[in-house]
Each structure stands twice: as C-alpha cells, then as structure tokens.
Write a structure and sequence with these properties.
mainly alpha; 55 residues; 91% helix; single chain
Length: 55
C-alpha cells in the first residue's frame, strides 16, 4: 500500500468519524419530539435513496 492510498484511507476514516460525532451531538441536543420524527422518517428516506440508486 503506497502512501497516497494510506493518506486517502486516513482522510476518509477521519471524515466518517467527524460526521458520526456531528450526528450524535445533533441527536443529543435535539428535542425528543424532533428525534422521534426523524427516526419515523428513516425508512421512507432509505426507500427513496434505494429507488434513486436503481435508476
């Protein structure tokens, strides 16, 4: 594995970690009703993204 691939993997890993932290903090700070509303919409969002990917 060369240094460029290693650096790219580290950058992608760091980006995923930062996005996870931001999402967890946002969920912790949100009102309970907001979190429930978002969780209820997740299956529809997943269905929409899957349908878009098939095109």
């Amino acid at each position: 594995m060369d240094y460029i691939a290693l650096a790219a993997a580290l950058v992608i890993g760091l980006a995923v970690f930062c996005a996870t932290v931001v999402c967890v903090v946002a969920l912790c700070r949100a009102q309970r009703t907001d979190v429930v509303a978002v969780v209820r919409e997740l299956p529809e969002l997943a269905h929409t993204l899957a349908r878009r990917r098939r095109r």
